UniProtKB/TrEMBL annotation:
Protein name: Cytochrome c
Signal peptide segment: none
PROSITE patterns given in the database record: CYTC
PANTHER family: BLL4483 PROTEIN, CBB3-TYPE CYTOCHROME C OXIDASE SUBUNIT FIXP
Molecular function (Gene Ontology), one example: electron transfer activity
The entry's keywords: Heme, Iron, Metal-binding
Residue ranges constituting the Cytochrome c domain according to the UniProt record: 39-114
Taxonomic lineage of the native organism: Bacteria, Pseudomonadati, Pseudomonadota, Alphaproteobacteria, Rhodobacterales
Domain of life: Bacteria
Keyword Phosphoprotein: no
Keyword flag Cell cycle: no
Length: 114
């Protein structure tokens, strides 16, 4: 990712919007802040019981699988729901209730669990 931004900057031919898209944390400093938290996967496992009712390892229908997604992707998605950048009534309600430590712990847990 970092290399991509660097290359993009050096090529000089891209717009700032493209550079921002290359690194989500530039759009939302909150994502970088949460990624910097030393996350506790055990706490994440404890909190995850609320999530796995829907996000089972083999979810059905419109529910996406979140097991084994990259940690930064999960943090990014939850921040996007929290700030309303990504809209989905259930996930917005859930994400708005979560604190930064909780998001960090959940992202660590789900990124590691199969
Ligand atoms: C009532 C069911 C339900 C519960 C409970 C739930 N989710 Fe979700 N979640 C969904 C649905 C449906 C979507 C897809 C929404 C959309 O289309 O944006 C989703 C999307 C997501 C995404 C984005 C996935 C992607 O592929 O982009 C993440 C990350 C996520 N949920 C995490 C969580 C976490 C963490 C919890 C527990 C704190 C949780 N969810 C609890 C139903 C649920």
């Amino acid at each position: 990712m970092r290399g991509g931004v660097f290359t993009a900057l050096c090529s000089g031919a891209v717009t700032s919007a493209q550079i921002v898209l290359a690194d989500q944390s530039l759009v939302h400093p909150e994502i970088a802040e949460i990624m910097a938290i030393e996350a506790d996967a055990d706490y994440g496992a404890y909190l995850a019981s609320e999530c796995t009712a829907c996000h089972s390892p083999n979810p059905q229908g419109a529910i996406p699988q979140i097991h084994m997604l990259p940690e930064s992707y999960i943090v990014g998605a939850l921040v996007d729901y929290r700030i309303g950048e990504r809209q989905h009534q259930v996930m917005e309600t859930i994400a708005k209730r979560l604190g930064e430590e909780e998001i960090a712990a959940l992202a660590k847990y789900f990124s590691e669990v199969e």
